[in-house]
Amino acid sequence: MLSYRFVSCGRPAFDLRLLQNVLASAIPMLGISEIAKSGTTSDPAEVLTMLRINAIPNSASAKKYYSVADYMIEGQEQTAHWHGKGAALLGLEGTVAKEDFERLCDNLHPKSGLQLTAKHLENRRVGYDLTFSVSKSISILYALGQDDRLPNEFRGAVADTMAEIEREMSTRVRRKGADFDRKTGNLIWADFTHHTSRPINGTPDPQLHVHAVVFNATWDSEEKQWKAGQFGGIKADAPYFQAMFRTRLANRLQALGYEIRKTKDDFEVTGVPERTIKEFSRRTTLIEKTADLLGIKKPETKAKLGATTREPKKEGQTWDSLVKGWEDRITLRERHAIHETVAHKETLPELANAAALDWAMRHSFERSSVVPERDLVTTALKHGLGSVTPEGIYKELGSRKDLIRREVDGRTMVTTRGVLNEERKILEFAQKGRGRWKPLGKAEDRGVVTPVVLPHNAASSPFEQAVSTGSTLTPTSPAAHSQPMEGAGKIKELPADPDLVTNLSNGQEKGRPDESKRPSNPQKLDTAYGSTCNESDIVTLTLAEQPKKVDLTPSQLAAVRHAWYSRDPLILIRGAAGTGKTHMTKALLKGVDVPWVILAPSAEASRGVLRREGFENAETLAKFLLDEETQQKARNGLIVLDEASLAGAHDMARLIQVADSIHARVLLLGDRRQHKSVARGDVLTLLEDRAGLPVAEVSEIRRQGGEYREAVKLASQGRVSDAFEKLDRLGWVKQGGDIAGDYVSAIRDGKSVLVVSPTHAEGDQVTAVIRARLKQEGRLKGEEKTFDGLSPVHLTEAERSESANLEGRVAVFVRSAGTHKAGDRVGVDAGNRDELAQRAKSIAVYDRSSLALAIGDSVRITANGKDLSGNHRLNNGSTYTVDGFTDAGNIRLNNSWVISKDFGHLAPGYVVTSHASQGRTVDRVLIAQSAQSFRASGKEQFYVSISRGRERATVYTSDKASLYEAIQRDDQRMLASELVRAPRKGIKDKLKKRVAFLRELGSRVMDGVRSRGMEKRRDLTHELG
């Protein structure tokens, strides 16, 4: 019986020790002869990146590098050499002697034999292995093309990259209260060059690579001693150093006369036959097939499989015998092509540093307002591979006037003036008309109850103590209005000036600012609070034109009143998950005296959730921004945006522009602690922290009850550790467990249930076992039918403009362009890829996939569309149950709608990511969050996930302690406005050094005082004698 049970042993979900036994039987089953002929990708970079950094945990592991036993080929042993300024300081140069190497492994000075670093811990980390690899075509050209120049060029690229890494080396400074890292700029490292991969069936394939063994020691010239190094920053910047290495290697090869072609994550030499590359990529193919067998998708986990699938070396092999065996595996035509590829051209490609940087900026700033400068350089190097140089990219960076740089926590961060101006436009709209608009509420409703407000930065809501309660609240006079307090963004309520609630009889256009009524002194405010109440109290609101009573919590009512009495162009209401924001919004809009529209960023949130809740004309933000007719419905009125945290800064700036043009105000509903947009920006944080706007908070959680509600409330306050512990005490955090069984049990109990997982990879695994259990229970009926599907690739516009990223995929037009209409699908091939790349703004890109469905399956819509009749809209994110199949093979849903078998935009509906779950509510939520998803875990993810249920939230993990740590990560997005307020580059370092100097100076002074005091006491003692 198949079940999704995590191993409750505190190790990752895929236990690599356990895999040793699994692979022993899996490798023969995969078939090596089949592997060589398969169509599996041959790009080694997909599994073995060109630079991988691994810690060397102990001395015994480090000493194995010198023996090179795993790779030794008779007649081809390579001599290791010392490198680095640190090695020179120790008197190490030239060939690596075994005694010197092993002494360093034991943290001993290679010459004196004394302890090297000042501190020596028993479990100290010996150092790091930086493994540099080349693409398969280069290894083939060296081994079979006999181009002996290649190893030297390879080692030269390694040495250049290691020199750059050496410049970044630092050590910790903790003397006398100091707390910072000091650059040392020196390393001790040795290179070990190998020419083959690990063997398959006793025989290796050609694979040129270098192990750069870096010792955990660096010379601190200020403290005059050897100390342990700080490698965290180097590991974090591994993609940057990899891009540097790859660029240098590509340029060196082109200087030799080779032509290169970019692949997905690497490059190959043009001319080496593709079949030859596949033939000698058996190990890569084996790892890929093993990963598929085990359901592993993450590149870093695949890399770990490399250590698990190793075979022992077959003794007695010579280099010549290996070459002879390799030649026998290829055809004469392939041999000829390899020798023809060994070129001696002298022309080099024209450099395109400016174009590469332009592309990198378009790509990077589509989804981030601020990026590390090194990430931008990495992207430019990868994009311009073969036509750029590191020096050229940095020179181009320095010449750009539209880039803004600041140093933040030791890293150079960059943004653009365009991104900054976008944020400033949003802030300008929010601030320019503050206090100058007429209240939104109807005159007869504005006196219902004395309202209360919340400081925008308050940790808890004072609304809970400030609203009068009763069975029915009737209008009282006078009414109120709100204004901000100086510098704090707070609101205080006061009796309204009759002039501030005037009707529109004076002919003023409804909704427009009344300049003549702007308060002369908005900072002078009084308070008019009502009696206190508990969070559980419910307030019943009776609207003048609505006989039906509306039950609201105190903070809901205060938020309603905050919106009604606001005189600002932009109004903010913050609502935690499950506080009834939609219910509150209904009451709010019933009392609004202007036309309004309500929007949400996603189709399911707008046309799905909001329309089901009674907002019949709710629309997506995207349609509103494109459809002038929809925009006119809000003229001189109000635009309400729900789930505002999911709106990016670019769309928000466009919304602001539309609102300004139609004289409308904007009301944003959202929660900055939930997920943010995929596009750049964090609009709610920008407005709350930078605009100084008052924020009403809906704080009482209504979705859950008891201790479950308390856990969600803790998470909504950012206290995910406390929320986790509370759920754990309830027994709802399980190390192990049968998630499929619990899913079926919930259905059996008549409960709505949803599984949430941080990653699609883990979600796919859970889906498989849930479907298997449903089949076993007889809930999936009949024969499965397989349908062609489309899986979104989520490329940026810059990536879509690259034809190489499109070929072999499907382009779907999201808007009309040229001869294509919205909804048209086009298979991309070599003939049309360039044309489609020019339509990057108008297309979405998909990979082809397949989907097996049976009667009873849950199916989720993954893109907006219509059913087969064209009468019913299918919203992205909506979930349905398969009721059957028509004679034509189309899919019939449980609501009698029929989806075309060619629709494509379908996925299993059992599991969604936390991002997709935001806004959904079910009875029970099951959260699959094993070790393979920890890198996608965080505060926002955990908060959103656990708050989806009404009755229960159960977390299934492989390691509770590690999950507890993983959910501490915060999706903190730096804004361009925040970056420009950061100290300029160098100031922070100078301040840190100054503080450290003053501390050390103070310590010396105190030492002197104490020393003089002791001398005086000794003198006095002597005198008294």
TrEMBL record:
Residues 509-518 have a biased composition (Basic and acidic residues). Gene3D superfamilies: P-loop containing nucleotide triphosphate hydrolases. Residues 461-531 are annotated as: Disordered. Residues 567-680 form the AAA+ ATPase domain. InterPro entries: AAA+_ATPase, P-loop_NTPase, TraI/TrwC_relax, TrwC. Pfam families: AAA_30, TrwC. Residues 461-480, 519-531 have a biased composition (Polar residues). This is IncW plasmid conjugative relaxase protein TrwC (TraI).
